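Narrative progress, year one. The postdoctoral researcher (J.K.) led the effort to move from monomer predictions toward full complexes, under supervision of the PI. The following entry was the first complex the group processed end to end, covering 939 residues in total.
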Amino acid sequence: MTAALGKDLIGLERLSPDQIRLILDTAEPFKEVSERVIKKVPALRGKTIVNLFFESSTRTRISFEFAEKRLSADTVNVAATGSAVQKGETLVDTAKNLEAMRIDMVVIRHASSGAAQFLGDRIRSNVVNAGDGKHEHPTQALLDLLTIRDKLGRIEGVKVCLVGDILHSRVARSNIWGLTKLGAQVAVCGPHSLMPRGIADLGVTVLRRVEEAIEWADVLNVLRLQLERMEAGFIPSLREYYRVFGVTVERLAKAPRALTVMHPGPMNRGVEIDSRVADGPHSVILDQVTNGVAVRMAVLYLLAGGRPELADAAKGPAAGGTD
Amino acid sequence: MAAPLLLKGGRVVDPSRDLDEAADVLIQDGRIAAVGPGLGAPDGATVRDVRGTVVAPGLVDVHVHLREPGNEDEETIATGARAAVAGGFTAVCAMPNTDPVTDNQAAVGFIVRQSLRAGFARVYPIGAISVGQRGQQLAEFGEMVGAGAVAVSDDGQPVASSHLMRTALEYARTFDIPVADHCEEPSLSAGGVMHEGLVATKLGLKGIPAAAEEIMVARDILLGELTGGRLHLCHLSTRGSVELMRRAKERGLRVTAEVTPHHLSLTEAACERYDTHAKMNPPLREAADVAALRQALQEGVIDCVASDHAPHAYDEKEAAFDDAPFGIVGLETAFGVAYTELVQGGALTLPQLILRMSTVPARVFGLPGGTLQPGAPADVVALDVTAGWCVDAARFHSKSRNTPFAGRSLTGRAALTLVAGEIVHDAPAAAQA
Amino acid sequence: MSRPERTTILDARAVSRALQHMAVAVLELAHGTDDLVLIGIQRRGVELAERIAKLIEQQEGVLVPRGALDITLYRDDLQTVGPKPVIGETRLPGDLTGKHAVVVDDVLYTGRTVRAALDELADFGRPKRISLCVLVDRGGRELPIQADIVGKVVKTGPGDRVDVMVQELDGKDQVDLVRGARQ
């Protein structure tokens, strides 16, 4: 039997709509596991999983760790925050060391786009991308998709607008792939200085103002604005950003239809999102967190199946090297 | 003195004299003695059958990085010169971004001495524009030229200061050497690792916009006009740069430009799957840029092809895309890529390609060579343009293997390379050995 | 190998009689309905448990609590079969501590499914007793597990297959034995 997802989960760009739906459907029964008194099933008993976080992320790491533990896997956390060691060297050496320790899966978070792919091409273990640079954050998009499906009953035809710093956002890229593959209508909205080149070619509409987004959308997915963006000169100030692009109660009041508001966290209250919105009736932000564990359980569970015969094929010529 | 050598039965292509005919080439005392059909062999001459090959002036590469001194694990002058003749090049110009920087007469002299010791291709040093390539104080052009430098450049680094660029162009006039600039506006390109376009957006990599190059091309052309200096623009990569060059040439300015084989053949798509062998600066651009560069080369808007041979150690490229260094090796694939893509692709004729890879670059940098005129140094290449070959990086003479063309099938490679009448590369002999 | 040969071992009426008998046996085993909980194993065990509950209700006037158990995540053979694409629902009627849980399944074969079900039930509390009730016992056990209540015993070989069909999912109540089917 071939594994349903292949060896690694690097991004949603390379998944088919059926594979994405399979993950979401598999996540459903896992939601129930987290509601049990004993929140644990033995599905991944004896598997060893390394959570390799080169970039700090409390929330994603904890979510993965819960998912792993609720599947009875043995987990090790490695926090290798960018020290004096050159990032590239660390990655190669880490890959070789992990391989030598015969682990089953690696969950990797790294500041460089392509790091998960790099690791996946070089080790036999399954690799799950927990966010690589500005590239993809597939499990975040999957939990966003699950939350939209829970709330609206469907994804096809739903109008979803991603609001904020699209340029630097891996969450935005993964959401665009996942949503468009499942037939949603997707728009992006934010300052043009934070819009990547050619974004419209990915099949999304570019909206100029957040008011237009609110008028158009069924779902707003509000992205975190990194404070460094202001220092790098992409926007003049956080204050002005909130004035022009902040998702506020007053703006939402003008929405022509019921609007669902999501945020991948952690939030900058009073920058991209008004606290009254984050904690208000539009918000499904905590449902996203709950769904995160179920989606990650589904991904780990699906990747665990049929692994051995795929590992060799996935190694490919790139892994061999010349010396 | 070595015995005379008669190259018999080839198709002789010498763009310097507009020659393309079946002819023999007689070499004596390190110089071209005669070119013509049915030449007789003088007493004691060695006769070499070169039927089926194209006999041309040796190729000239005005832009290579040989890494010595400083990074001899990646390349040395000797290995670079050996790789050059394997690629059909009889002369190369070594960029000064070595460690330490080639910014004084002693450093230039070191390269000259190392290349004489190595043999193979002629290696001409290029001196730095600024001391330490730091973009502040002019290096001593006069002393460097005295030691053998043929041009100045801060390549690898853009000349950010317009004042410095102006001064360099003016000061270089005394020595009548070209000032070669790597056109990149650093505040626009900072942090960028590939072309700013759809592929970068998908991969989540920071892009370098075409404008980062074009702003500097425009600036340099204006400064060239202001100063009357000999301006040479390195590795142009965008259609916008081509347009700026076209206008400059139409106005009769003294500006020349080069383009690399990879910018003539690859696009940003090569970066997909984060292949660090497609990471270079300037970055691989879009299909429309490739088309414009090819046309510009055909029309002479861009003067010549240069490899920008940039060796890097295996483990440096074995990294995340952001962390890998820019650049690829090119000496041993340049002619094959250019012949396959441009001549077989219908963009250029073979004589036009040899013009752009030999005669013109020699002329632009004022080097001997680029011609089979009797009396000229016998820097000659016999090119096999019939047999296909597969790029096997493990067999490179270069110390480094960082090429995006590994595994590619190419047509066109050097069968025989002669420098000053000496055979320095003999592919059929090597194959038999 | 010869073509698979299909014979019906229980028709609709025989299934009905077997369930009647099983319902009575469950009541006797549990001494009435007070602590009784019926738990069906996904898929067809869930429907059979529902049927038995209805029969008990007709007789006793009490609808006993029912649950459904999907044992996919408790299987011991994930590596060899790979994950089942979609996992069924697990739903239990509250804490099982102190209850008499009767696990209902369609076919008892190797015993591995029951082993997994026992593991899973243990994560939902501590029943005072767990019993096993199956429609067909086809032999071939690989674990020391026996059913307390059996509708029909059939002798089978490893190449045979027992197909249980229920009205709710398959449109008819019937049990077929397929010889030489290579499961």
